[in-house]
Amino acid sequence: MSIDSVEARISYIVAALFLVYAVLYIVRAVQKYKVLLTATPVKNACQVGYKLVSGTCEQSHIPTTGYWLVPGLTFLVLSIGLLIFIRLKKRAALIVIGFILGFAGGNVTVGIVPVAYAAWLLLRAFRLNRYGDPSFAGSSRMAKEQAKARREGRVIETTTTSEVIAGPRTPPPPSKRYTPKKKPRKR
Question: Which of 47, 78, 116, 121 has the fewest Cβ atoms within 10 angstroms?
Fold first, then answer.
């Protein structure tokens, strides 16, 4: 199943968002971005290495390069993969990469967008497969028609174009090598 123009546009937005995330993470790795660690003071005193600032203990910490670089490169590779599969119009690959991007995000604020995007694509694929129309209005209309046909006892036509073109399947001919010869029937 290929994607339509609405899915392609939203896919490009998600890919662009995660390319921006990738660039931000990689820039933080190169610039040795500082992380602020906080702790609660015990009896108005802080642990060694922390400073008491307005009631909380703070420590400025420079993490290793991999702290920012690994997620940045992960986002970069997956975003490029997303762009490739948008051009190839492969919905299944977009769903998988969307879920991977969401779970690779590390926190809810980064990961909610691609997980919601992948779930939306999955829902549209389900509607397209079941009703022939991925939109909410079209699938709702088809579901109502199918329910009405069931209530009236009519046969619901569910043939796909591949079944119409190919026709009924015939069983394969018996293989001479693997199929034992039939013995003649006794009368």
Answer: 47
Strand 56-61, strand 35-39: pairing = antiparallel
Measured CA distances, 45 to 40, 59, 104, 107 (Å)? 9, 13, 37, 31
User: Taking each helix axis from N to C terminus, what angle separates 136-152 and 108-131, rounded to the nearest 10 degrees?
Assistant: 40
How much is the pTM? 0.65
Domain residue ranges of the chain, discontinuous segments joined by +: 5-29+64-137
Helices 108-131/91-104 angle, 10° precision: 160
Please tell me whether residue 174 adopts helix, strand or coil conformation.
coil
CA-based nearest residue to 132, from 152, 159, 150: 159
- Decide: 90 and 125 in contact? Cβ < 8 Å: no
- pLDDT value at 96 more than 70: yes
